[in-house]
Amino acid sequence: MTPLFTAADFFTLKPAIALCSVGCIVLFAEWAFRSRGAAAWVALFGELLTAYALWVHSADVAANGPRFALSNSMTIDGFSVFFGYIFVVSAILAIIISARYMEDEKSNRSEFYALMLFAQAGMTVMAQGYDLVTLFIGLELMALSFYVMVGFLRDELRSNEAAMKYLILGALSSGFLAYGFSILYGISGSTNLSEIADAVASRDLHDPILILAMVTTSVGLFFKISVVPFHMWAPDVYEGAPTPVTAYISVASKAASFALLMRIFLVPLVSAQEVWIPLLGGVALATMTLGNIAAITQNNLKRLLAYSSISHAGYILLGLVAGNETGLKGVSVYILVYMFMNFGVFALIAAMRRDGHAAEDIDDLGGLMGRHPGYAILMLILLLSLAGIPPTAGFYGKYFIFLGLLQAGQYFLAIVAALYVAVATYYYFRIIRAIFLSDGLEPATIAPGLGTKLALVASGVFTLVIGLYPEPFINMATNSILLALR
Fold this sequence. Notes:
By secondary structure, the chain is mainly alpha-helical. It has helices at about 5-25, 30-35, 40-65, 80-105, 110-130, 130-150, 155-190, 195-200, 210-225, 235-240, 245-265, 275-295, 300-320, 325-350, 370, 375-385, 395-405, 410-435, 450-470, 470-485, and strands at about 65-70, 75, 350-355, 355-360, 445. The radius of gyration is 21 Å and the shape is globular.
């Protein structure tokens, strides 16, 4: 009799088990240690355990290649390990930023950090999943945790409103995704991605049922990565959520959602590229257009970065539209460098206070160069990188995506995407202008805690180091994804 749960299954689930186990312990940390700060330390310990489990997975993949477990519903490969490390680094940065921020907001409770770990467990399952049911469970575990985290500031009306919008629209998108998954199951008679791929390859690409499956699945996935026309939740959620949660959603949640999107489009739907490439191309074009143009008029930093995040999602989609190894290289590098760029900017926003409340307007950064020149220089590096200007890390993500589009003959998309870099540069330079050329009538107080300082400095340093010496980082990112999806 075959055992229901084997040692190989346990080995595969180690990162998720570590996160869920430590998450449960975190719930009692404040009571056990009689300290509000204990939960953050226990959560960081959980991240170290998870990083160790991923290191073991990485060594196993290098020695033995990919492996499957849990009746082929989960896998360990370079793809899952790469995204697992993205989630660990993102969570560590979010935790160390949150400690001081949540204390200032008088909401530094253990369950906040437990939810952070539970969300990460869902992301890990999304990256490792090789079955529709497994992927959906991971997605919902992540989403449910974020719904609560967005509304964690219970006395803040903006936070409550953002959580409600996120919940309602998120539930709607999950319904579309579940419907798309059910049609894929009906087509193939299986929830395993490889078996679905065989069934899709044997059908006419213009079969209405197959097209319906792709469209409904795409709608659910497009909401998760906040692309047009399913982006409407992002500005309100980014603005209303606690700033560390905004940073975590903008980086880790987006990375996990792209991991899911890539698993779906590049495994079961890979033979239908001629159908979904035009769809992704049109969505990417609309996303870059709206994201960049809407960001121009924003004065609230978090809303500006929300629209900026929407436009970045459009650029990442272009890597899939290219449909070649160079485009996928651009996707992997973009996701890696975006993590550091975005977290660094949000780390400084989290440290801004005015009259005891969070300050989030561009004018609040007025005269930062005169008051805190070190932070001003770091912000300059991060904003130039978000714009894609060399020699910063953000340049390489856009470079490989543009190169992939040119190699694929997608000249129109490449030209338009390049032109939108100029638009993005304009609104990022609005922030730079406030930092270096404006005194600010009443600039906000910036008093980051030790964790926020570490996050800001680490983000700025890695953004510059990757820009100046990109080869090892590019090789790590691209080999992990290309070898797994080839």
